[in-house]
Design goal:
The protein has about 180 residues and is an alpha/beta fold. The chain has helices at about 5, 25-30, 50-55, 75-80, 155-170; strands at about 35-40, 60-65, 90-95, 105-110, 115-120, 125-135, 135-145, 180-185.
């Protein structure tokens, strides 16, 4: 069985929209197609080999991994295992609130010129943004992990939507058209 079929989940069709790529775009013509994947792993601790194999098998240029459950300190050994040959040192954006769970990890090819930062001002979701530089242009990739509402976190969909709307308002769409990736629960 092809590995991406093992992880294929049927998405509700109302959540999907077709995205057209202009084939005249200079980035499209001068470079191979960029392959970006997202994985929600619900604890990466014992899945590093599987994740590495999947990244290689899918020939991913960039992998955004949510719900890593890694800690900011003490999980460096696990993070170092998440590095297939030809990929840069993984970027671990662990949850810093003291609560367990969550977390985002970014793995990308060494050949990519990419800068990533955690955006830590959010209360109802975790977020990192990566700026990818290609042929004198930049592409903004934003990974979101929104935990599901629970009695423990007391989050509501309304709170998330209000905070996310404020977050979106901070972008000048004339400068960057961001691409959002992640788990919005």
């Amino acid at each position: 069985m092809h590995s991406d079929q093992r992880f294929k989940k049927q998405a509700p069709s109302e959540n999907l929209i077709p995205v057209r790529v202009k084939q005249t775009d200079s980035v499209y013509n001068k470079a191979k197609r960029l392959k970006v994947i997202h994985l929600n792993v619900q604890s990466i601790g014992n899945k590093t080999t599987l994740v590495n194999d999947l990244i290689v098998e899918l020939d991913a240029d960039i992998a955004f991994i949510t719900e890593t459950w890694l800690k900011p300190k003490g999980d460096e050994g696990i993070v170092s295992q998440l590095r297939p040959d030809g990929y840069a040192k993984p970027l671990n954006f662990a949850r810093t609130t003291g609560q367990s769970g969550g977390g985002i990890c970014v793995i990308h090819r060494e050949s990519l010129d990419m800068q990533c930062t955690a955006l830590t001002t959010m209360t109802h979701f975790e977020c990192c943004q990566c700026k990818l530089f290609i042929n004198g242009r930049s592409l903004l990739l934003i990974c979101i992990y929104h935990p599901p509402p629970s009695s423990k976190n007391k989050f509501t969909p309304k709170q998330f939507l209000a905070e996310f709307e404020t977050f979106l308002g901070g972008f000048s769409l004339n400068v960057h058209l961001p691409i959002f990736i992640g788990d919005f629960n």
